[in-house]
Design goal:
Elements (H helix, E strand, L loop, with lengths): L1 E10 L5 E11 L1 E6 L6 H8 L7 E6 L2 E2 L4 H6 L1 E4 L11 H11 L5 H14 L15 H12 L6 E5 L7 H14 L4 E6 L2 H7 L2 E6 L2 E6 L1 H6 L5 E5 L5 H7 L2 E7 L2 E7 L9 E2 L4 H11 L7
Helix pairs in contact: 3-4, 5-6
Bound molecules: adenosine-5'-diphosphate.
GO molecular function: ATP binding
Pfam families: ABC_tran
Protein name: ABC transporter ATP-binding protein
Length: about 300
């Protein structure tokens, strides 16, 4: 199964070009769609999920023409939107059972088995009788995944799922997601580099409605091997370094600014070689337009 997006474009009525000729081939497995706020990720996710129209282009999933055969797509789609409401005074088990009824699973026994399996899969079985209003952000997100899996989807879309989760909850969420990629096309839209680093076998970075980079994260990193150097500097020196080097990231390390630069040769000057990180790739694409050659 493969999701193929070809030349997709969308301009909103206020003139914002949210998607500009997006083309992506997304195979079974975890696919990370990475980009800053406003990049166009939600517009793309909602278009794939048949919730809004594109102006041009096509999307196919196996034999389904997504933009035309909306009902067919919805039968095989699981979708966890950025924001979703939950009934607060009802337990996870009861609400999941209710959703399963709505999705047409009419036999009680079959439904109970399915609900139990989904609660186990998302690590919520122990808390199944608690009211949802007492759930943490991470538990709510895992519940969101459980409901998205009721119809055993072939395509699962999760939009910014880890925003606002603490590191422990984020980790639990990763564990739940990583099992799903074995038989499903899972698209994870996020502005958090770690989400992609931990989970995804393929990725794309989008910015201002365009794909800036796509590929396998490990291969993308391989292209930066032996080209990233780091140095801890004083804050007031940053401007000069930016003039003299291709600075691709700057962050505080133990309270001091540390810069990463990209260079084909050893720059000397107190720099030392460092392992390229996906953050380096991301920041260079998003903030610096450093025109790195990845192929
Ligand atoms: P992301 O999910 O990456 O944050 P979005 O797809 O939500 O990005 O937004 C992409 C761009 O389109 C942004 O500039 C946003 O302000 C704009 N946008 C999103 N939805 C609408 C809308 N319904 N009408 C007009 N502009 C919109």
């Amino acid at each position: 199964m493969e999701l193929i997006i070809d030349n997709l474009s969308k301009t909103y009525s206020n003139g914002v070009k949210a998607l500009q000729n997006i083309s992506l081939e997304i195979p079974t497995g975890m696919f990370g769609l990475l980009g800053p706020n406003g990049a166009g990720k939600s517009t793309l996710m909602r278009t794939i999920a048949t919730l809004q129209e594109a102006d041009n282009g096509s999307i196919t999933l196996g034999g389904i023409d997504v933009l035309k055969q909306k009902d067919e797509l919805r039968q095989v789609l699981g979708y966890l939107p950025q924001q979703f409401g939950l009934y607060p005074k009802i337990s996870a088990e009861v609400l999941l059972n209710h959703f399963a009824v709505l999705k047409g699973i009419t036999y009680k026994g079959e439904r109970k088995d399915l609900v139990d399996a989904l609660l186990h899969k998302t690590n919520l079985y122990e808390v199944r009788q608690q009211h949802l209003k007492g759930f943490s952000g991470g538990m709510k997100q895992r519940f969101g995944i459980a409901q998205a899996l009721i119809n055993n989807p072939k395509l699962l879309i999760v939009d910014e799922p880890t925003a606002g989760l603490d590191p422990v909850e984020r980790n639990r969420f990763y564990n739940v997601l990583s099992e799903l990629g074995e038989h499903t096309v899972v698209i994870l839209s996020t502005h958090i580099v770690d989400d992609v680093k931990e989970l995804c076998t393929n990725m794309a970075i989008i910015n201002q409605g365009k794909v800036c980079l796509k590929g396998n994260p490990l291969q993308i990193l391989e292209n930066l091997k032996d080209k990233v150097y780091k140095k801890t500097i004083h804050k007031q020196e940053l401007k000069t370094y930016k003039q003299n080097y291709k600075v691709i990231s700057e962050k505080l390390f133990l309270g001091k600014p540390t810069i990463h630069i990209v260079s084909e040769v050893n720059p000397g000057d107190g720099f030392s070689l460092t392992n390229a990180a996906l953050e380096d790739v991301y920041f260079s694409e998003i903030f610096n337009n450093a025109n790195l050659k990845f192929n």
